[in-house]
Design brief:
alpha/beta, Alkaline Phosphatase, subunit A, five-stranded mixed beta sheet, 464 residues
């Protein structure tokens, strides 16, 4: 057998047709979902990218491995930790990756016989480049059992799809730069603006219409969908389709202005932590299966190992999805625990009906210390019921505390260590502000674009 393991970075489940979205972002992904299994309530338990992928490849929660923060200088994954590619390679699979996570942390190259770095293209990391690197490798290794990890970044900021893709999702004749439109003002006057100005907004130009930016995100998904169609066509052409387990997953989603988050992936809300997960293996996974119960990313590792005939390590937090795929279970657990420690420091728990979030440090955001959402009546998470339904919030908070205590088993809390050093992205904004003679305290009280832009202009003038 072959395994093609595909990370769809920053892909939000609710923006796909197979998850109920009404716009044509994902015709081929919808087809893949119809050919195999789709998990309706799959969660990224640790966000964002660095911690999510670490959890996927170890089958463990960040609280257990110690990897809870993205972009932190404090983290190091012990080499004793089980690692999916290494286990597969040890059982006869040729392992390869087209990826660039190695540039974040060295452990992402572990276990791969071939590691092909995908960085360095005009569109940051372009799905077309991923395919150009992956397809010759597939053709050259099709006669041996292989595990191939492909990491597509297309829906990630900056959203720079080819123009004809954007035309599919933005109203013809509408001007995204119309100065009478003020819908971008909240984003431009947000405390995170110094970071996103350089990494996103300057690359888009003087956009005034927030709907245009969200349309670009949809366009990026459609562009990605076409690249996945090309991958599938190659599997058919090379005779690999029938004996290939295809696993597709989002590492996290994306907030598109919801919850005061402007085109980024922080916050433990459904927009970011509910991710697409699909699996296809013709003749082995029923076509059109939809799994309704709670599952999490760490479940992918034991599932892949079981498919390959390898006994998963007993130490994993993940549980095999095969009972779900065989119709014997609705999900893998009754509750999923959530964590973030990059822009802000929060933990949460989601059950069949509710989500509870506790925020310790809100970073550049304004967050109440406790949030409770009834996902049955409030799927958009707009009505914080933590005070009104305090008994439910208390019960879920106690459940969260027990889980943290049991998982740590007396070890120090890595989130506490990170907070002492500072949240990575909060620190980055702080450093940017210092470059322009601004302070965090004054900025967080009055984060206005004109203040920052004036300071940046003064600095440029002084430099010349």
């Amino acid at each position: 057998m072959n395994i093609v393991f595909v990370s769809l970075d920053t892909l939000r489940a609710s923006r796909l047709g197979c998850y109920g979205y009404g716009k044509p972002t994902s015709p081929h992904l919808d087809r893949i979902a119809a050919q195999g299994a789709l998990f309706e309530r799959a969660y990224a338990t640790d966000i964002p990218t660095e911690v999510a992928h670490t959890g996927i490849f170890t089958g463990k929660m960040g609280l257990r491995t110690g990897i809870v923060a993205h972009g932190s200088a404090l983290t190091q994954l012990p080499k004793k930790e089980p690692w999916l590619p290494a286990l597969l390679r040890g059982h006869g699979f040729t392992t390869a990756a087209v990826d660039n996570l190695y540039q974040l942390k060295e452990w992402f190259a572990r276990g791969f016989r071939y590691y092909i770095n995908s960085s360095g293209t005009e569109r940051s990391i372009d799905g077309r480049t991923v395919n150009e690197l992956a397809f010759p490798w597939i053709r050259g290794h099709q006669r041996e059992p292989f595990f191939l990890f492909l990491h597509y970044w297309d829906p990630h900021t900056p959203y720079l799809p080819p123009p004809h893709y954007a035309e599919l999702f933005y109203e013809r004749g509408r001007d995204p730069f119309d100065r009478a439109n003020t819908s971008m003002e909240a984003a431009y006057n947000h405390a995170a603006y110094p970071f996103f100005k350089h990494h996103h907004y300057d690359k888009l130009g003087p956009v005034t219409d927030a709907a245009y930016v969200s349309a670009l995100y949809d366009a990026e998904i459609r562009y990605l969908d076409d690249r996945l169609r090309e991958l599938d066509e190659l599997l058919v052409q090379e005779g690999l389709y029938d004996d290939t387990l295809l696993v597709l997953f989002g590492d996290h989603g994306e907030s598109l202005t919801e919850h005061d988050i402007y085109w980024d992936h922080c916050g433990l809300y459904e927009t970011t932590v509910r991710v697409p997960v699909m699996m296809r293996w013709p003749g082995r996974i029923p076509a059109g299966l939809r799994v309704a119960g709670l599952v999490q990313q760490q479940d992918l590792m034991p599932t892949v190992l079981e498919a390959a005939g390898i006994t998963p390590p007993a130490s994993l937090d993940g549980r095999s999805l095969w009972p779900c795929l065989q119709g014997e279970a609705e999900g893998t657990r009754e509750a999923v625990f959530l964590s973030e420690c990059a822009w802000q420091a929060s933990r949460g728990v989601v059950t069949r009906d509710y989500k509870f979030i506790r925020t310790v440090d809100a970073g550049p955001f304004r967050r109440p210390p406790r949030e409770l959402y009834d996902l049955r009546s409030d799927p958009e998470e707009t009505d914080n019921a933590a005070e009104r339904a305090a008994d439910v919030a208390d019960e879920l908070e106690q459940r969260l505390d027990r889980w943290v205590e049991e998982t740590l088993g007396g070890r120090p809390d890595p989130m506490a260590a990170q907070l002492e050093a500072g949240l990575p992205f909060k620190n980055r904004i702080h450093d940017i502000l210092l470059e322009y003679g601004l302070t965090w305290d004054s900025w967080i009280r009055d984060p206005r674009r004109d203040i920052f832009d004036a300071a940046a202009a003064a600095r440029r003038a002084k430099a010349t």
